[in-house]
Structures are given as C-alpha cells and as structure tokens.
Amino acid sequence: xxxxxxxxxxxxxxxxxxxxxxxxxxxxxxxxxxxxxxxxxxxxxxxxxxxxxxxxxxxxxxxxxxxxxxxxxxxxxxxxxxxxxxxxxxxxxxxxxxxxxxxxxxxxxxxxxxxxxxxxxxxxxxxxxxxxxxxxxxxxxxxxxxxxxxxxxxxxxxxxxxxxxxxxxxxxxx
Length: 174
What we know:
Order of helices and strands: HHHEEEEEEEEEEH
Mean pLDDT: 79
CATH topology of the largest domain: Lipocalin
Distance between the termini: 96 Å
Strand order of the largest sheet: 1-2-3-4-5-6-7-10
Low-confidence stretches: 3-42
Largest sheet: 8 strands, antiparallel, barrel
Helix content: 10-25%
Oligomer: single chain
CATH architecture of the largest domain: Beta Barrel
Shape: globular
Radius of gyration: 27 Å
CATH class of the largest domain: Mainly Beta
Number of strands: 10
C-alpha cells in the first residue's frame, strides 16, 4: 500500500512538472527580440528598378566608384577604381543579386588590355562591402578560389549618383 502511495505521489509530481506554463509565461515567447527578427525578415529591401551609386576608399588610397542598376535579381553597372600609378581599371559589371550578396563579373579595360574579374559585394543598408580573397584563373577569368574564405574589407558608402557621374562616364564610354 505504501508503495502505491509513493508511486501516486511521484506520478503527481511528474504531471505537475510537465504541465504547460501559464498563459502569462507563454505570452512572453513573443519577446521584443523575436519581433525584431521578424521585422528584419519582413523588411528585406527590394532593389529592383533602382540604380544605386557607391564610393569608397581602400587602405592603399584607391578611390572606388560604383554604379549598380537592379532588375529583379539581375545586376548591371560600372566600376572605376582610380589608381593613378598603374592606370585605372574601368569596366562593366554583370551579375546576380542573391539575398544581400552580389556576385558578378567585372570586365576590365586597363590601358587597352582586357580582363574579366569576379567581384563579390555584400549590401548592408546604405553601405556596400567588397570581398577580397585569393583568386585563380578559370575559363579565362579571375575567380575567387574559395568563396567561404572571402574577407569583406573595402567599404563603400551610398552616394548620390551625380557625385560620381563624371568618373562613371569613363566606364560607359568603353
């Protein structure tokens, strides 16, 4: 008899410990942190139909000018890197936007030589980060050897396109 009382007592404790939390506790599951995550997901920017311009300077004092036009997930544009001591790489960009990442080919003209270079950018609000990393030649273009090891070191800030239109004009003429 005492064993059955002990078993009933243990079962009662087990049942109460497994009981769902009160309504007050379950209401807390929609915390402000959870709400912020859902707001970020809902606030995913739509760049389609827009032309955005960016300007940045890298550590070696190179000036980077970039104009990007978005049509759904297709990205086209022009980039000029002002590099006076070597000749300025100028060319067209063609690629795709996936989430906040732009993966594209940059067709570069430097003093009558033509190169195709893979470029990767990460969009973050009014800023853009250009990836750097080890590259290899593959099918006639320079591509990143390992996309998982990219470093986003070059920061661009969004600017009014009229601020860089003269420089971007050089790329459009080629």
